[in-house]
Design a protein that fits this description.
There is one protein chain. The chain is mostly helical. The protein is built from eleven helices and no strands. It has two domains: 100 residues; 99 residues, no CATH class. The chain is globular. It is found in: Nucleus.
Length: 200
């Protein structure tokens, strides 16, 4: 059934009306209060295709993912199952970020962490995935939003910083990063790394 759905919609997903209708269907199906919906790979494929091809649907997709994540948090399933489902949703957030919807996604994850709505392991999972796909130059807004996650000792402790060199590289990159206004972003790498207790 799911494969038929995928084969039927993928050829037409290039067209906004079809993509919008598909998103509406997926939203109704995945957020159905009457049944406990299990995620299938085809759901993720279709959502990612919509995100990739239709920037005009990013806001709707983002709101749907936020609601879907919150729904898992209220689930009565075992904790490991909830975490696994939330990780799948985090993957969709990362993909949405990768196709241009960066600031709202980072702001959402950062806010959830600050308010205790996301497990630290998932916040770390998100941040590491983001570090793997981003590269300079960075906007000032992105730095202001994402840097606090990288500097958070609970998310990036000493061991994580050692295992994830992209985190240190990101900090080093922004010390010399010039943003749109041509103002130098003022961060002292040595002080930051020393504060994280990972400097030599």
């Amino acid at each position: 059934c799911y494969l038929v759905l995928s084969f039927f919609f993928l050829p037409g997903i290039e067209f906004t009306p079809i993509a919008g209708g598909l998103l509406h269907y997926l939203q109704g199906f995945l957020l159905n209060n009457e049944i406990l919906t299990e995620f299938e790979m085809v759901h993720f494929v279709l959502l990612d295709e919509i995100a990739t091809k239709h920037s005009g649907l990013h806001i709707r997709l983002f709101k749907m993912l936020c609601e879907l994540y919150d729904r898992q948090s209220k689930s009565q399933q075992p904790a490991e199952m909830i975490i696994a489902k939330q990780r799948s949703i985090i993957d969709r957030f990362v993909h949405l970020l990768s196709v241009g919807f960066a600031l709202p996604v980072v702001e959402k994850i950062n806010k959830m962490f600050q308010e205790g709505q996301i497990d630290v392991s998932l916040a770390r999972y998100f941040a590491i995935d983001v570090l793997d796909i981003i590269e300079p130059p960075y906007s000032e807004e992105f730095i202001e939003t994402f840097l606090p996650m990288v500097l958070n000792r609970e998310i990036f402790d000493k061991l994580t910083m050692i295992k994830v060199p992209a985190a240190t590289q990101f900090i080093q990159d922004i010390t010399t990063e010039t943003v749109g206004s041509n103002d130098e972003v003022e961060f002292n790498t040595n002080e930051v790394l020393s504060e994280l207790n990972i400097s030599d």
